[in-house]
Design brief:
Elements (H helix, E strand, L loop, with lengths): L6 H8 L7 H20 L14 H12 L1 H16 L23 H19 L6 H27 L4 H9 L1 H14 L2 H13 L1
Length: 203
C-alpha cells in the first residue's frame, strides 16, 4: 500500500476510502477556509502599525500541511475570494478598508501571500516534513517567511513607498516576528501529533 502523502489522505485511508473523493476534498478545503476566517476575527490592533496581530498565519500553514500543496492553496484562494466578494472574513478593523479594497491596503501583501505560503507548507508536508517536530518547524518557518516577505514588500514598496524597506520592516516585521515564532513553535507540534494519533488508530 502506498504511504499517504498528506494527513488528509491518511484520514481517508483510515476511513477505508479508496481515495479522496471530490466531496471530501471540497469539505476539507471549506473547513480550512472557515478556520482562516475565524482566526481573522481574533484581531488585536497595534497603535504603532496599521497591521493588526492575528492568528491567521498559523492556520494557513497548518491547513496547507494537512491538505497538501494544491488543496491548501485552494483553501486560501477561496478565503480571498470570499473577502473580495464582501463577506466579513477579513480581520475586523475600524481603519482598514473592507472587501476587495483590503487587498490594496497595508495588509494586502500578507493576505495575497497566504495561498503561496500554504502551497509551500503543503509541498514540504508532502515530502514528510510534517511528521517530525524539527522538520515541521522548518516547513512552517519557510511558509512564514513567504508571509512576511509578501507583507513587508507590499507595505514598503506599494502602499507606503516613502517608508522604504526599513520602515516596512519596523511596521510589518519586527513587532510580529517574535510572537509568530512562538506560535510557530507551538503549532509545529500539531501535525506530528496528529500523524501519531492516526498511526495509533490504524496500527
Amino acid at each position: 500500500m502506498l504511504q499517504p502523502a498528506t494527513l488528509l489522505e491518511s484520514l481517508a485511508l483510515r476511513a477505508n476510502s479508496r481515495g479522496l473523493q471530490l466531496a471530501e476534498r471540497a469539505g476539507a478545503v471549506a473547513f480550512v477556509t472557515v478556520l482562516t476566517a475565524i482566526a481573522a476575527q481574533v484581531s488585536i490592533p497595534l497603535p504603532f502599525t496599521p497591521v493588526p496581530f492575528t492568528f491567521q498565519p498559523m492556520v494557513v500553514l497548518l491547513g496547507g500541511a494537512a491538505l497538501g500543496a494544491r488543496l491548501g492553496m485552494t483553501s486560501q484562494i477561496l478565503y480571498l475570494a470570499l473577502g473580495i466578494a464582501g463577506l466579513p472574513v477579513f480581520a475586523a478593523s475600524a481603519t482598514l478598508p473592507h472587501g476587495a479594497a483590503r487587498l490594496l491596503g497595508p495588509t494586502g501583501g500578507y493576505l495575497m501571500s497566504y495561498p503561496f505560503a500554504a502551497w509551500v507548507a503543503g509541498s514540504l508536508a508532502e515530502l514528510g516534513f510534517d511528521r517530525r517536530y524539527i522538520t515541521a518547524v522548518i516547513a512552517m518557518a519557510v511558509g512564514l517567511v513567504v508571509v512576511f516577505a509578501g507583507g513587508v514588500v507590499w507595505l514598503g514598496f506599494v502602499v507606503e513607498p516613502s517608508r522604504g524597506i526599513a520602515g516596512a520592516l519596523a511596521a510589518g516585521f519586527f513587532p510580529f516576528v517574535l510572537p509568530d515564532l512562538i506560535k510557530l513553535l507551538i503549532a509545529a507540534g500539531v501535525m506530528p501529533g496528529l500523524w501519531w494519533l492516526t498511526g495509533r488508530r490504524t496500527g
